[in-house]
Design brief:
Distance between the termini: 98 Å
Largest sheet: 5 strands, antiparallel
Helix content: 40-55%
GO molecular function: actin filament binding; structural constituent of cytoskeleton
Number of strands: 12
Protein name: Arp2/3 complex 34 kDa subunit
Shape: globular
Mean pLDDT: 86
Radius of gyration: 34 Å
CATH class of the largest domain: Alpha Beta
InterPro entries: ARPC2 (IPR007188), ARPC2/4 (IPR034666)
CATH topology of the largest domain: Yope Regulator, Chain: A
Family: Belongs to the ARPC2 family.
Strand order of the largest sheet: 1-2-3-7-6
Keywords: Actin-binding, Cell projection, Cytoplasm, Cytoskeleton
Length: 331
């Protein structure tokens, strides 16, 4: 299995290239879209080459998701805690974007290793912003408590107009994903893929992994949730997170894995489709090659048969051949 990286490789490349060319007055304005419809925009002007504006557009939240001022709950505090005074939050953000950050390259640490580490942290801005409410819940789980301002059932956005749900408790947090796929083939492969999670969890090597359950119908924890939020054609996946899963450095990895679980499944479904298509193409090519060999062998056999066959003569041809040989001598 391949795990998605929290850092945006392209954003990290843009930041690194810009840092290496601060003395060049080059204007920059580029935008791109990454998985789950997260859009980025980077701008640098020739007047202030040491200032970089990074804008972020998040997936459209469903009505039940926890969004305040266009951002997930706790996102502003998470940005300030992660980047300090080096990065400023512009209010209002750029048009059509949820968040715009102002990065001053002159304020970066002087140490080269610390500088690269900070750029890598900026490249993980998606995790910082979208994972903010999940991080709050899991931090309280580590201390075996529940955030006082959290509802009994929390909905967090992870895809456009789609959310997953958390049921926080002092000793565990249950995370439930309604799995939706547009393509019927993806739905079949994803259903089989998700059911394998149950089988894999039973192995001794994964005894410390979170408990996993799959159900074709909504679990009881989702009672009272609007029907449109429960329209899942690939079933429902549940994970039970315990304090040992968010202890120390495990917190960051757990937050990222839970925030991008649907993208993780979708990625492996597409890889499975590509693998099967490759196998089918190779099989077809081998069959065509076998047919071509059989056809060439048949043509060769026909040529041999033509060279060794006798010509059938008519009665007139036979008589003419006999007369041409002259009278037969009986002596």
């Amino acid at each position: 299995m391949i795990l998605l990286q929290s850092q945006s490789k392209y954003l990290l490349q843009v930041l690194t290239n810009r840092l290496q060319n601060l003395d060049k007055g080059v204007e920059l304005d580029c935008q791109w879209i990454e998985f789950d419809d997260v859009r980025f925009n980077v701008q640098v002007s020739m007047k202030n080459p040491h200032i970089l504006l990074l804008s972020l557009s998040l997936p459209t939240p469903p009505p039940e998701a926890m969004f305040v001022g266009g951002l997930p709950v706790g996102a502003i505090e998470a940005i300030k805690a992660a980047y300090g005074t080096i990065v400023q939050i512009l209010d209002p953000p750029k048009d059509t974007y949820n968040l715009t950050l102002k990065l001053n390259f002159n304020k970066l640490p002087s140490n080269e290793e610390a500088k690269q580490s900070f750029l890598a942290k900026i490249a993980s801005v998606r995790e910082v912003v979208l994972g903010a409410p999940l991080r709050i819940i899991l931090k309280h789980l580590a201390s075996r408590s529940v955030a006082p301002d959290m509802n009994r059932l929390v909905a967090l956005v992870h895809r456009p107009d789609e959310s997953f749900f958390l049921l926080p408790q002092p000793d565990k947090v249950t995370v439930i994903y309604p799995m939706r796929f547009k393509d019927s083939t993806d739905t079949v492969l994803a259903t089989s893929f998700l059911q394998e999670f149950l089988e894999a969890r039973r192995s001794a090597a994964l005894s410390n992994a979170p408990l996993c359950q799959w159900s074709p119908t909504p679990p009881q924890e989702l009672q009272g949730v609007p029907e449109e939020a429960l329209s899942a054609n690939a079933g429902f996946v549940s994970f039970v997170i315990y304090p040992r899963h968010v202890d120390g450095k495990k917190l960051d990895r757990t937050v990222w894995n839970l925030s991008t679980f649907h993208a993780y499944v979708n990625y492996h479904v597409k890889c499975s489709e590509g693998f099967m298509h490759t196998r089918m193409r190779r099989r077809v090519e081998s069959l065509i090659e076998a047919l071509d060999h059989a056809k060439s062998d048949l043509d060769q056999a026909r040529k041999v048969e033509t060279r060794t066959s006798f010509k059938r003569l008519s009665l007139n041809d036979s008589r003419s051949n006999s007369n041409s040989k002259g009278p037969i001598s009986w002596r």
